[in-house]
Amino acid sequence: MTNDLPPALVLVSILLFSSPSVVGSNHFDDPIIIAVDLDNGIVTDQDIFVSGYVENEDLPSSIWWHLSDSEGRVEHGTLTGELFELDRLSSRPRWGFEFTIEARGAMPCACNLHIFAQDSVSDPIEVIRSIFFHEGAHSLPTTVYIESPTEDSWASSTLQIEGHSFSMGDSVPTLLAKIVQSTPSVQCSERESSLILDSVGDSAIILPVDAVWGSFVSEIDVSGYDDGWHDIFVFSSNEDVAGYSEACVSVRVDNTPPDVTIGGPSSAIEGSGNLLFDGSETDDAHWGRDGINYIWTIRRPSHTGSIPIEVLSGHDLRSYSFSTDYSGEFELSLTAIDLAGNSETSMIHFTIENLAPVIRLEIDGRAVFDGDTVYLQKSSAIEFDATSSSDTDNDISSLRCVWKINNIPIYEGRYREMPWPEGVGDQYALTLEVSDDDRETSVLTVIISDADPSSPIPPSMVILLCSTAFLIFAVFKRRLTATKDIQIPKWT
């Protein structure tokens, strides 16, 4: 079944997924920030001086740039060895950079300037600016670039696309977007964009462009696309100039939630060890099992609802172990969230059966058992000891011992020394009830009889004496008969 995640769980998941990576043990590694002192969409016939800075915990391992148009790369350079540290104006160090783009090497060009920075633990960060190197009366085509999504992003149901497009004149660029299914080996750069544009037709998605800032933001419906790789082409054109410019990014579309499977026992005995539940068969259809985040939630149902006992999550948490120390009915749910944010939940119920306590009773240091008769002196104090009674580890400390005489409760505790009860004759029934915190109870009853010498002989003793006397009489009589047989004279 498919369940929408509760808001609280969604928030937890977002925090888990978006938390920055830990570096060392004392701080987080936030993404690199690149700042560029250059307006977007400028038109010039002069060299351009570009300055800016990168901000990061550590000196970036590499920083570089390239200038490109629709035909490919025009100019490029490396800045790694030319960085200089700036006075600290923020919580992180900053390193400045400067370089010049020569107009004569680029002109004429409707170009995008790409600046990249990378450290040793993350993917490159990129910023882009559009530049028109122009002279004379001839107009240049538009520029366009996509800022989001980035390469290898995920999309489910909808996809938000953002970027910028500029033109030299006063007219606003016209943008068409096209989504085309692709494969990891055949993506944007491997395609003939003119064929894609010619096939757009009525299926093109028109993206609005801000006339002042050149920005565009649009949400595209991808719910009708099969799971897999897709290329998003954005074509930009200007009614005043022939031709077009283009930008493309490859994304992964995943519209199918994971298929969640839980394997495990439906019942167990209290104290029998840990129960193991397996979610490794959970699968995300086209995209497989890599990248799935597993959220295990164990609850204990009650009359007020299900109470969460524990919540665990992780990308490698494909199994869950639960102790049988506590008895009761439980429900275990597994929520799987794929990299596109689709989620699916499966739930199973299981029971841990409670074990009754084991009664161990000693009277005056001697072990007795249910149904025994114990003979004691009325005149002596009697020690009743149930401290050796046992239960599972989680229940042993909560055992409750209730003592009854002739079914009347008289005492609670594991040990008691007491005299013969007043108002009770020569015999009474002693009952011990031992219960745990789950109200599971074991009962033991023994008969306590007076063993005072002055008291009448117990019936059992009378039977034993009579049996002994009869046995002695029978043996004696048999011997006497044998002797007489020997003295009988023989016939002659």
Structural class: mainly beta
- Please state the CA-atom Rg, rounded to the nearest Å: 44 Å
Alpha-carbon distance between the termini?
113 Å
Strand order of the largest sheet: 4-11-10-6-7
| Unreliable spans | 1-27, 486-492
Mean model confidence by pLDDT: 85
Q: How many runs of DSSP E, i.e. beta strands? A: 35
CATH class of the domain at 31-138: Mainly Beta
- The helix content, as a percent range, equals 10-25%
Strand content: over 45%
- CATH names the topology of the domain at 31-138 as Immunoglobulin-like
Q: How does the overall form come out from the CA principal axes?
A: rod-shaped
Which architecture of the domain at 31-138 would the CATH scheme give at its second level?
Answer: Sandwich
Note the topology:
Blueprint: H1 7-18, E1 22-23, E2 27-28, E3 33-36, E4 42-44, E5 48-55, E6 62-69, E7 72-78, E8 84-85, E9 94-101, H2 103-106, E10 109-118, E11 125-133, E12 143-148, E13 153-155, E14 158-166, E15 174-181, H3 193-198, E16 205-207, E17 215-221, E18 228-238, E19 241-253, E20 267-269, E21 275-278, E22 293-302, E23 305-314, E24 319-322, E25 328-337, E26 343-353, E27 361-363, E28 366-368, E29 373-376, E30 382-385, E31 400-405, E32 408-412, E33 415-418, E34 427-435, E35 441-450, H4 459-486
